[in-house]
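[User] Once you have settled down, look closely at the record that follows, and write a paragraph about the fold.
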Amino acid sequence: MNQVKGFRRIVNATRYSWQGLRAAWIGEEAFRQELILVLVMLPLAVWLGTDAVERGLLIGSVLLVLIVELLNSAVEAVTDRVGMERHELSGKAKDMGSAAVMISLINVAAIWGMIAAERFLL
């Protein structure tokens, strides 16, 4: 098998990544909603964070939601590709992906809540 190497591999990987982001934007409403939320929260993170560590936590937590949502969407796509009939393992895989997204959102709420509380209440 002929493997692409070097700069061409980087170009291909970048193209595939953009295709994945485009597919998520077009086909996943949750991804669109979360991306819009991230775009709103990024300037707030810069304002709310008092130093680089806080800003990194705030920004990183919201970007993590997008990462987890992309992985959840990938699990759903593969599960649907295998078969659309109801199957216990398919349901479990989709539920676990959904749970991962929920935990990433709880992570955002916890980090943002702690930093906001420290800044405004303490």
User: Anything to note?
Assistant: Helices lie at 6-27, 29-48, 52-82, 88-120.
